[in-house]
Automatic annotation (TrEMBL):
It is a single-pass membrane protein. InterPro entries: ER_stress-assoc. It comes from the Eukaryota. Residues 26-35 have a biased composition (Low complexity). Residues 9-21 have a biased composition (Basic and acidic residues). This is Stress-associated endoplasmic reticulum protein. The lineage of its organism: Eukaryota, Fungi, Dikarya, Ascomycota, Pezizomycotina. The keyword Transmembrane helix applies. Keywords: Endoplasmic reticulum, Membrane, Transmembrane, Transmembrane helix. Its main location: membrane.
Length: 78
């Protein structure tokens, strides 16, 4: 059985009312929000894992380099 024009209007009115109760449609909401895929904590942890080894290695090497530089200056001055 086909819809009558009166039923069609009533269905459209009901659909608009229900859509207003739900809020914005998904298509409209997805355009405005772009949520990052990784949280800040995970990015910080990843940066520490990647760069932390380099930092610890520099902390180990710098005193050795400093002592080598001091010994060279001591040989030159004496």
């Amino acid at each position: 059985m086909a819809q009558t024009p009166q039923q069609r209007r009533a269905n459209d009115k009901y659909a608009k009312h229900e859509a207003a109760k739900r809020g914005k449609s998904k298509a409209t909401a997805s355009k405005n929000s772009s949520k990052p895929t990784l949280s800040t904590g995970w990015v910080a942890l990843l940066a520490f894992v990647v760069c932390g080894g380099l930092l610890f290695e520099l902390l180990r090497v710098v005193p050795e380099l400093w002592s080598a530089i001091v010994s060279v200056f001591n040989r030159l001055l004496s």
